Amino acid sequence: MYVIWEAVPCLVGVVAFLTYTKIRGEAPPVSIGFTAMVLFNLLRFPLGVFPDMINNYVKAKISLQRIHGFLVSTEVEGLPMLEQLGTPSDETVIELTKVTTAWNSTEFVENSPSHRIVLRSLDLLIPRKSFTVIIGTTGSGKTSLLQGSILGEAITLSGSRYCGGRISYSSQTSWIQNATLRENILFGETYEAER
After folding, report:
1. Angstrom distance (rounded) from CA 45 to CA 49
2. pTM beyond 0.90
3. How far, in whole angstroms, is CA 134 from its chain's centroid?
4. Residue 182: how many CA atoms within 13 Å on its side-chain side?
5. Distance (Å, rounded) from C-alpha 109 to C-alpha 157?
6. The pLDDT of residue 86 is above 60
7. 3-class secondary structure for 72-126?
8. How far apart are CA 88 and CA 83, in angstroms?
């Protein structure tokens, strides 16, 4: 491919001189020949950069559309504190009552198959000083529950969400090492056949 890319300017010059000779019936004078060669050489760089410019333009346009979509999206409210609502929070850290959330409120249409409801009519009560684990298969809604409903990154369509203190969240990003399956499982530890 690189050879073709480098050969195209030479081929353009040859075709241009052959066309000139065919139309005029004579070889081009030296002044026209050298001038044309200099102009073809000057066009080499802009024509080489042109595909990259188109690619960069498309990337910039897509990026601006994404930024625009983010800037015009509706603001998501955080969890109100239970103390502010007059509810005792001695026993409760997080309380969700009949919460329905969606990731994108602009596409939500009630009773329509096109709506993007993430969780519907969710009830959750997490007591203070408890060890709560959320488990499930891939795509079962763990992230939607944590990020969308509890942290408030999704739009709350109905229900109430309350927090009885501060929340911190550390997301889990799955990754795999460039190693064997055994090394990925052992993660640097020695292999014990009994285990």
Report:
1. 6
2. no
3. 25
4. 5
5. 11
6. no
7. HCCCCCCCCECCCCCCCCCCEEEEEEEEEEECCHHHCCCCCCCCCEEEEEEEEEE
8. 7
**Residue 191 pLDDT > 80:** yes
- Expressed in angstroms, the distance from the first to the final Cα of the chain is 54
Domain locations in the chain as residue ranges: 2-72, 92-163
Please list, in sequence order, all residues whose beta carbon lies within 8 angstroms of the beta carbon of residue 145, skipping any fewer than 6 positions away. Answer: 119, 122, 124, 134
Residue 103's pLDDT is what? 76
Q: Which two tokens stand for residue 37?
A: 């060669």
Handedness of CA 169, 170, 172, 173 (dihedral sign): positive
Report phi then psi at 48, rounded to 5. Answer: -70, -30
In order of 1, 27, 34, 123, the CA distances from 13 in angstroms are 19, 13, 11, 75
DSSP tally for the chain: helices H, then strands E: 4, 3
Q: Is the distance from CB of 148 to CB of 118 less than 8 angstroms?
A: yes
The two tokens of residue 173 are: 């990003």
What is the pLDDT at residue 81?
55
20 is written with which tokens? 């000139």
Show the tokens assigned to 94.
């997080």
User: Do β-strands 117-127 and 92-102 pair in parallel, antiparallel, or remain unpaired?
Assistant: antiparallel
Confidence class for position 108, pLDDT limits 50, 70, 90: very low
